[in-house]
Design brief:
- The chain is α/β, with parallel strands linked by helices.
- The protein has a 31-stranded mixed β-sheet that branches. A six-stranded mixed β-sheet has the order 31-34-36-37-39-38.
- A hairpin with a 2-residue loop joins strand 6 and strand 7.
- The N and C termini lie far apart (89 Å).
- The relative contact order is 0.06.
Amino acid sequence: MVKIEKPADYSKVVVPAELLQNKRRLTPAEIEILEKNLNHNDDPSWSNFYVDDSEDGFDPSLIHLSFFSGYVVLGKLQNLVLKYNDLRLQCGIRRSKVSNTVTGDFCVIRNVFYLDNYRLGNRVILFNINEMSCTNHAKFGNGILKKGEPEEHRVWIGVANENEGRKILPFEDLIPADAYLWSHYRDDAELLKRFVELTESGVSHELDTYGIVADDAVIKNVSIIKDAKIGQAAYIKGAFKLKNITVLSSEEEASQIGEGVEMVNGIMGYGCKVFYQAIAVRFVLGRNCQVKYGARVLNSVLGDNSTVSCCEILNNLIYPFHEQHHNSSFLIATTVMGQSNIAAGATIGSNHNSRSPDGEIFAKRGFWPGLCSDFKHNSRFASFVLVSKGSYQYELDIPYPFALVAPGNNGSPKISIIPAWWFMYDMFAITRNKDKFLKRDKRKKKVQIIETDPLAPDTMQEIMTALDRIIGLTAGYLKSINDEYMEGKLTAEEQYQAAKDYLHQNTEADFTLEDSICQKKYGAVIYKPVQAYKMYRKTVKYFATRTLMDFCQDLNQEMLTHELVDRIRKLPLYTEWENVGGQIIPSEKIRELFENIKNGSINNWESVHQFYNLCNCAYEQYKVRYALYLLEQLYSRPIEEFSVDLYRNITDDVSIVAYDIYNASLKSREKDYTDYYRNMVYRSEKEMDEVIGPLEDNSFLLKLRKDTADFTTKIREMFVGLTK
């Protein structure tokens, strides 16, 4: 309802004292010029108007046809022109209504029909804005409360679950790691309470807020801006509505908002670009994200370096390096751990299996569902799982990393799984993963270090689990066919060892396994289990040996010695790992963090982020200790007891993997040049080279060839010191 109020009593208008340093009131001559230029002030004495008191600091002729009320404090105003791209505007205020506003030096306010309670930095351009106002209780997208506000006014983000059972509070410094810990550890009420307290820490609850537009920001042709904090060098053009938001921006990482955009209740990260009718409501965007072409992002956290367009994203927690570009794809109620790609037609969220929208999808990093895929909630996927096109009508639990999942053969209701598929059939794609994402990382300030290497402690942990599972399923298979390997094997341990021996000794065996847990009701058929077992083991050896070699090189040592092994053994051993926002952290360290939060040792989110950094500083040490552990687990003995033959086996396997990586990568890329169907669209080889570049100039393959040669040379000497 529209209310009627009396005009303000300007004798009672109080201007904060800190705003009046180096300011003065207008002279009668200046007031006369202002009024001749058809300006109007609700205070006829103009005593609410303050200007810069330096010589030539204020030119009243630059203010025309404008209305003023409340208090107005202007920085330097001289006859200068501000230029941004092709936009050139003279400094000053024209055809605008301004109240309770403070400007920096050399600003442009033109055709701003309602500007209230804002503080502008230097060289700010405001051009063609219908309404730009800020309330005294503005939160700028942060999930805090002001004095006297009821709890229901607090803005939450319902990530990962449509029923908001995992809801979190947005705040300016939030990163996906914070959102993950808050949303996925819901069984500790004390911890959840402390998360709220961390968010409120250091925040003013007074009813004294004002909008901010920082230095060198440009805002033009916008309909509504309310309760907004706009960062330095931000560029906003043609937006429809911006309400209760923070736009983080800097000269190095300038953010942009384009035509038709609507953003409400959220935080936009440094270097983000939101364009072309995109909508974001209750959101946090990480650094260097792009949201465009009508994309809808609701109740979601989007990690750094992600791009979404033409799609729908509702109630999600998404880690860095997420790609989703298609008009027909949508993602609902998921936790996707980044380095992911959602194909066209993927409808992840349409198949809830209860009368309440409380189902979830949980996918570790490298999730890649194929064209027109849909899944039943709840489903869970290991790292780097590729899902072939299909409609999956039952819940899935895929514990095999780097696997291919496909519908059953010949109409079978059992799904098909090839574990280690990426290693066996598309090594180029998985190998270039690390460099690809590093090149896409445009963050100038890296608040958190993101692990982009597919071979890391988190995936090794999954591979070890998958190896154990393949052995266990093989034991069941051998037992079912009454194979000689099970004769006299009465205990579970004996059967397990017999299955392991079978996998080692029958490297060409061709059989399938059935895994009932992978799909509700019908289960899955596991193809090529022997090949997958071999490839998984080789990959673990490769990771472990490469990590140990990196450790030696960091110490300027050519080989691993008994002294170095003793040194590694003294490092803390962590065998359980979590992907926390893209950073791989031991689970035990996460428990330590929680204890520090609950006992008050950590009292704000900045300290939480410092804890992440400390974990990252020790990451290489944690990793090398884990690498030693993995080798010893594979061979069931301490490394000091390895024989010369064992060392030779390790170096041979690792060298093979290294060359397999290069050769498979080269072969995968060669297909683009030799396959008939790939090159039939080119009239000549020269044209093909112009379009996709010559194969011999591929920088990734050139570097990989050199690195492979260097690695295989050094690996031969790696264990020599342990055989003396």
